[in-house]
Amino acid sequence: MASARRKMEFESPDVEKDFPGLYASESGRKSNESDFSDDAHERPSKKDLLIGKRKDKKDSKKDRGYAALEGESSPEEDPETKSPSKSKKSKSFKFPSKKEKREKSREKDSKEKDKEIEKDKKKEKEGKVKLKLKERKKSKHGEECTDVTDELPVFGVPLALAVERSRCHDGVDIPIVIRDCIDYVQENGLNMEAIYKLSGIKSKVQHLRRLYNQREVVQLADFEPPVVTSLLKQFFRELPEPVLTNDLIARFEEAAAIKEVGARETELKMLVDQLPTCNRHILAWLMVHLDCITDHEKYNKMNAQNLAIILSPVLQMSHRLITAILCHCKSLFPEVKLTRYIPPLSAGSPSLPDTVFGITDELRKQESLLSQIHQEMNAGYVSKRREEQLWEVQRLITQLKRKLRTVQRAQEAVQNQRSLDEDRCSNKMYDDEFHIDTTLQKARLGSEDETITSVVESRQIMPPNDTDRIVAETQLSIEIPSEPMDNVEANSSQVIEDVVDSTEIEEQHNYVDASGKTENTIVQSVAETEEELQGLLQEETVLQLEHRELLSLQADLQGRLQGERAEIERLRQELAAARTKYSFSGEDDSSEGSSSPSHSEGSDGDDPEVAARIAELQKENLILQQNKANLVRRIVEAREACLHLRVQLSLLQLSQESKQL
Amino acid sequence: MAKKLNQQPALHKVIMVGSGGVGKSALTLQFMYDEFVEDYEPTKADSYRKKVVLDGEEVQIDILDTAGQEDYAAIRDNYFRSGEGFLCVFSITEDDSFQATQEFREQILRVKNDENIPFLLVGNKSDLDEKRKVTLAEANSRAQQWNVPYVETSAKTRENVDKVFYDLMREIRSRKMEDNKTNNGRGRDKSKRKKLKCVIL
């Protein structure tokens, strides 16, 4: 800390030169800040005296100082010894004092004493080389960054500050470093033997600590489980105040000593509720996580007792208290569900989410991130990289907002279509009736007389100029039906096709709906891998596009249907007019109804020629029907192909648009 | 480092400033997407990036569209700091917005501490000439006083929209070139100084 402060004093004039007057107010804040953290460091020592956990604390304090030194020195220490050229490049901000050097040499000694296998050592070296590379990169384009590490660290500050500085942008108020560690162990460490018991390689832990202090994006996956668990332990160890707070920790201990299980649980619950929100959150997450670990005891050999032994000094809780909380974990923190943290997208991310849910979720994260950046900038943490990030996040937010607007607009359109859809449902009933009507007519084609009526009825759909003639020739029409039949076929095929199409649309519609829903539930149970999610999202876009196409098709068909229906109505009226015009219209009317049998009786006897003709026509009709069915099928197929092409086209357009954005 | 710069197109950071409702977003959207948005929705802050060809050279422009309202003044400073050029927009139909440019200019100069920061005074809504409240002479004299160009635009008709962005980018580019010349030495000095410090201590 002392070196950090010295450095600050050293650096600040420079900054002031660059932005004079800018920090007038902020530098004041800055000093407050560091005062505060100094305070924080002092506080535990006072408390130590009171509680008498001195030895324990001393160790951790030593650790802290040690850690702070090592964290800063290790990257520079190595280049000196290994490659002199590197030492030129690396910009040292620090002025290593003798004391520090002693620390370093002690560290080296202890390393040598370590009974590590050669392999491990090799690994460590490799790791160090990697670390060094990373470190150097950073120092190149983030000179000012190191300042924030010292001014606004995440480790070793009061929990509320750590939460604020290392914010999870999805509304879970625990420091990102702890969230990451828990995520990592939940994914990779549950079945690892002696998880949390093994210590990680110190240099790597310090490297990670430093990265988190610098608000870097960290890939824990590149590290071994012991490194990650050590990092978590270190965070808790460095907290100036225990998670259970100085005020309540004694009462927690008392509660844990209660013999009666029920009373113990209620007392603990009551105390947990008294904790500050951020303390309660982090305790809940940690305990639920540890509980998960004990669930896998069979593999990791870590039961509640073992965990208590290891974490007791870290959390400043007695074994009994830890096991008690773990025992009541499920009733103490019923609402906590460990969900994997998905950080806000960065500019390099391939694509923005496509659903309203996904976009608003992402937007919330980005806005949380943006406000954090603003906060930190207002607090005087200004660096080139931060500014870049500010613009980048702002850009992402703008893009998300624009996309949200377009998606919402599209959804509105879909909803409009849906209401149309409902309209259509009733219409469809009518369609079906009509459809059945025509088939019934065909079924009735048994007798000559009925042929006539059916022809007449079918004629309703015929162009008007023909109708008059046909109606006039009703009796004679037996000779000409082949021609009108054609027309009838054409028309009814249209109707059938429409019906087929609309049912098809209905089906696909449902499919889209269903898949949309499952999609959402999948999104909500974030446990899936991101790849899967991406795939599903893409699938969803495709389905949405398909849906849109289908809807437009449906609207088109509906328009046509309505046109035809109007035409039918008109023809009916015309037919009725024609009927009243001719004297036999009354007879015709009755033939449609119950009196038709008598009529058919009379005409049945007429002559066999007619019967033969009818049979012929029926055959012809059959063939035509088959042809029609084939045509309809082909039309449907062509339409489907069209649809797919259109979907692909709009997909391409979308991707191009997003690229342009 | 130099190689990296050559590979990536130069990036010019432009910031739109001006009172609320003068058409900053409209200008930006017209430039970005060739669209004119009639309905007014106050901006908090929006940022856009576009690849453009500036005098035969491919460059990127970052546009930051800021809030005209005072409510967001606090976050505005953070943006102003990183801006390389400013389009200071007012509406020719609204005298208040023209008066407000003075404040914006001062705020920018305060944050950037640079009299010669690339800056254009932009009179928007030139399509509404019949409602004009700010005369060309007035605007021109203020621009002269500041030693900056004055351009009248119409986000609606797209008149001069490209011009203001391209003109500003040219200023930023030439400014950067100058800085490179003078700063190169200084920059090296800086690093040397830092190294020296380390060596001494």
From TrEMBL, chain A:
Residues 526-581 form a coiled coil. InterPro entries: RALBP1, RalBP1-like_Ral-bd, Rho_GTPase_activation_prot, RhoGAP_dom. Signal peptide: none annotated. The keyword DNA-binding does not apply. SUPFAM superfamilies: GTPase activation domain, GAP. Residues 157-353 form the Rho-GAP domain. Keywords: Coiled coil, GTPase activation. This is Rho-GAP domain-containing protein. It comes from the Eukaryota. It holds the Pfam family RhoGAP. Residues 1-126, 581-608 are annotated as: Disordered. One of its GO terms (biological process) is small GTPase-mediated signal transduction. GO terms for molecular function: GTPase activator activity; small GTPase binding. The keyword Coiled coil applies. Residues 1-19, 27-65, 97-126 have a biased composition (Basic and acidic residues). PANTHER family: RALA BINDING PROTEIN 1 RALBP1 (PTHR12783), RALA-BINDING PROTEIN 1 (PTHR12783:SF5).
Automatic annotation (TrEMBL), chain B:
GO terms for molecular function: G protein activity; GTP binding. Its EC number is 3.6.5.2. InterPro entries: P-loop_NTPase, Small_GTP-bd, Small_GTPase, Small_GTPase_Ras-type. It is found in: Cell membrane. GO terms for biological process: signal transduction. It is a lipid-anchor. CDD domains: RalA_RalB. It is an enzyme of class 3 (hydrolase). SMART domains: RAB (SM00175), RAN (SM00176), RAS (SM00173), RHO (SM00174). Gene3D superfamilies: P-loop containing nucleotide triphosphate hydrolases (3.40.50.300). Residues 176-196 are annotated as: Disordered. Pfam families: Ras (PF00071). Keywords: Cell membrane, GTP-binding, Hydrolase, Lipoprotein, Membrane, Methylation, Nucleotide-binding, Prenylation. GO terms for cellular component: plasma membrane. It comes from the Eukaryota. Belongs to the small GTPase superfamily. Ras family. PANTHER family: RAS, DI-RAS, AND RHEB FAMILY MEMBERS OF SMALL GTPASE SUPERFAMILY. This is small monomeric GTPase.
